[in-house]
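Ops channel
N.P.: pipeline sanity check, posting one input/output pair.
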């Protein structure tokens, strides 16, 4: 069967299986591996919308397939695909290598089939993509592309030039570049659905689980998420999804919110298929106190029994926490103060003090919050190496003061300072030195053999070497502290610490190898490091378990069976 469109998600570095590279802790605080195998949630709404409109679409998570099958022949797989159009995400800049390489392979085997790119990084780099990468025919810009995509598919079917497709950057038959206006920026998000039922449907229809898995370990631990809004009210200095970035690059002047009713509907679908935590992405209070309250009430009204994970952009007051406890059967929370130092936190664009942070955590725990994650970051404006490590000392004080499951995490801002963030656009003003600018430079950088060599920035207080040292020193210290306080077992903590020490050593060894002149020798020495890289990864990866929500998570077979009986498969 010829499909109308196949959406592919590439690994961040296409030939990662052949390379020997120390990617380090770049994905330590998310469910993905360092290959960033998670596809954008928007894949689900795009497939859902296209199918509703009579187009046949499917997802192939190539990154997961490659991770799970070391011998998978990617070129063979691509050559056998039968589609009228291919779509790839370049949402995260971390895919600058993988997405463009896979686009080239598609062209190698399907010369005349159009390739579309979408996502926020391709929006940022749209002109460069259409000017310099012939393997890409179209970029659909913006944070909401379902409708322009449908329109583009109709144009492609009709054989006409897509002059009227909103948000499109394209090349005409004479190779001239066109930039259609970025005018489709919907304020109403309820027309489209982020339906996890689409995953189930695709798995059953194509009898292919791997292709649709949101990330490698999804079946062990299905973590699901719902986008409550597009855009943001905050201006964190290093964030490429800030109010400033959305306004300047993605055409969105103010955030748009999904209605409480729609959010509850989407949660209900998840709840039918998965006994898993549901992460409500974005602080609900961005939409105002009444909006947040009404989302929470609709969760209760729908009778959703999944654990709800709520994100706080700033400490919460009693009223909000009371309402959460009242309406969510089980809940966990997370907040990112980024630094324990209020001055640095302010430079990062977060204007709250530590006393109110602690008050909030304390009260949330009293109200039954099952786990509170607190994230610190390394590579911030105005942050020295000592200050980065000091965030671990603060974490210890925090844990000693509070009771309940409070989990601090510390990780580097990596692999990149976000394009479109205030710090990327005006590095000097925010204390940054931006090492890389163009998409080509980032694509090349991803081929470097260590995360240090990939980093696209330094700060005026930390070189890349210092960022690496601060990272490993802080992570080892955090791990030791969790061991002492009994948060993780002694055995596990020791393996994690050994893994971190090994990763630190390997990162330094790679530096030395990278400085060698003889390319053959370099290659050989890097390959010799492979086993060490694998061992370090296996050990450090154990720490990821701490990200999980308490309790069991899994698939609800009854939901899948109901789906089959209803004949939706
Ligand atoms: C939710 C979120 C996440 C979730 C992702 C859930 C998911 N699977 O989508 C989690 C927490 C897992 C996450 C992880 C990461 N994230 Co994040 N994330 C966000 C956040 C808060 C919201 C994203 C959002 O609103 N998406 C909604 C819209 C924009 O996307 P969408 O609906 O999924 O897709 C639409 C469009 O993007 C487009 N589209 C996407 N793909 C395609 C493909 C085609 C063919 C087409 C036509 C269109 C298209 O159309 C879709 C439908 O309308 C933003 C910050 C912000 N406020 O924006 C950061 C943000 C996007 N993340 C960012 C980063 C850096 C990361 C990580 C790399 C961090 C890390 N080192 O661990 C990882 C990468 C994970 C991976 N791929 O494995 C940066 C990206 C900067 C950049 N330009 O690279 C942002 C901007 C800010 C930040 N620093 O956190 N993230």
């Amino acid at each position: 069967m010829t499909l109308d469109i196949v959406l592919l998600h590439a690994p961040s570095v296409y030939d990662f299986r052949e390379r020997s590279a120390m990617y380090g802790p770049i994905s330590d605080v998310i469910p993905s591996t360092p290959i960033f195998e998670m596809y954008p949630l928007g894949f689900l709404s795009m497939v859902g919308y296209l199918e509703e409109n009579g187009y046949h679409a499917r997802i192939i998570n190539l990154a997961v397939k490659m991770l799970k099958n070391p011998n998978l022949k990617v070129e063979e797989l691509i050559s056998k695909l039968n589609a009228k159009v291919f779509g790839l995400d370049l949402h995260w800049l971390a895919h600058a290598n993988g997405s463009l390489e896979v686009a080239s392979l598609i062209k190698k085997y399907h010369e005349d089939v159009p390739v579309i790119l979408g996502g926020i990084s391709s929006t940022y780099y749209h002109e460069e993509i259409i000017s310099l990468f012939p393997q890409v025919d179209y970029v659909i810009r913006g944070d909401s592309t379902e409708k322009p995509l449908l329109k583009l598919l109709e144009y492609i079917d009709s054989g006409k030039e897509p002059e009227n497709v909103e948000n499109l950057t394209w090349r005409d038959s004479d190779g001239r570049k066109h930039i259609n206006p970025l005018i489709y920026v919907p304020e109403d998000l309820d027309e489209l659905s982020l339906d996890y039922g689409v995953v189930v449907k695709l798995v059953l229809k194509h009898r292919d689980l791997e292709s649709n898995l949101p990330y490698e370990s999804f079946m062990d631990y299905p973590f699901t998420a719902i986008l409550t809004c597009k855009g943001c009210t905050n201006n964190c200095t290093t964030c490429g999804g800030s109010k400033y970035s959305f306004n300047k690059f993605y055409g969105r002047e103010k955030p748009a919110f999904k209605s409480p009713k729609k959010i509850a509907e989407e949660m209900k679908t998840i709840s039918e298929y998965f006994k898993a935590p549901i992460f409500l992405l974005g602080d609900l209070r961005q939409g105002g106190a009444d909006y947040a309250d009404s989302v929470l009430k609709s969760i209760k009204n729908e009778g959703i029994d999944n654990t709800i994970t709520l994100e706080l952009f700033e400490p919460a007051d009693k009223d909000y926490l009371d309402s959460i406890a009242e309406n969510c059967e089980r809940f966990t929370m997370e907040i990112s103060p980024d630094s324990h130092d209020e001055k640095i936190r302010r430079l990062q664009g977060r204007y709250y003090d530590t006393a109110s942070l602690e008050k909030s955590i304390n009260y949330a725990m009293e109200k039954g919050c099952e786990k509170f994650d607190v994230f610190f970051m390394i590579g911030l404006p105005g942050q020295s190496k000592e200050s980065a490590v000091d965030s671990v000392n603060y974490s210890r004080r925090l844990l000693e003061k509070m009771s309940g499951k409070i989990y601090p995490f510390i990780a580097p801002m990596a692999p990149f300072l976000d394009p479109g963030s205030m710090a990327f656009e005006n590095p000097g003003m925010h204390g940054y030195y931006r090492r890389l600018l163009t998409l080509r430079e980032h694509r090349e950088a991803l081929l470097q053999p260590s995360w240090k060599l990939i980093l696209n920035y330094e700060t005026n207080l930390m070189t890349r070497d210092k960022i690496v040292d601060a990272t490993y020193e802080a992570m080892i210290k955090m791990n030791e502290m969790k061991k002492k306080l009994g948060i993780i077992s002694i055995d596990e903590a020791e393996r994690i610490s050994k893994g971190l020490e090994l990763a630190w050593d390997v990162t330094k060894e790679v530096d030395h190898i990278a400085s060698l002149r003889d390319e053959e020798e370099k290659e050989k020495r890097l390959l010799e490091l492979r086993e060490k890289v694998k061992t370090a990864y296996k050990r450090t990866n154990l720490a990821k378990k701490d990200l999980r929500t308490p309790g069991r998570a899994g698939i609800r077979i009854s939901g899948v069976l109901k789906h089959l009986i209803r004949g939706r498969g």
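N.P.: looks fine end to end. The two ends are 17 Å apart (CA to CA).
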